[in-house]
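ok so for the tutorial part 2 we go from a plain amino acid sequence to predicted structure tokens. step 1 is just haveing the sequence, like this:
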Amino acid sequence: MKLSTGLRNALLSGGSLKATLDGGEIRIYSGTVPADADAAIGGATLLVTIKNGGSGITFATASGGVMQKAGGETWSGTNAATGTASFYRHVLSADDGSSSTTAARIQGTVAVAGADMNLTSVALSSGATQTLNFYSIAMPAA
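step 2 — the prediction. this is what the tokens look like for a chain of 142 residues:
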């Protein structure tokens, strides 16, 4: 998982990860994974945008160094394209995907196992619903 310069600066300036990312969304892409979370999306294809219905996603209060998806929310989206998911970005809704050192972003890989985000299948089909039942962000103790 890679944090953007904008997200790291927000955290170092006294903001919380929860306050910074609450209300955002998760975008899952196919294609070449950008070098880091500051880089532009490039030629990657947006497969699906995950939200809580029509609203942004939110987190429960952190416990044990882990912040999880808020209980009672349904994080899902309708696939806009067909493709093989390769990476995701957790962003704020105004993020346009261009190169930025101020946008708060988390970027990670997507696979069936062993990735930052594991899905039951990485083959997404246009028009199908994609749901994320589990999502958490952990801060290591060391």
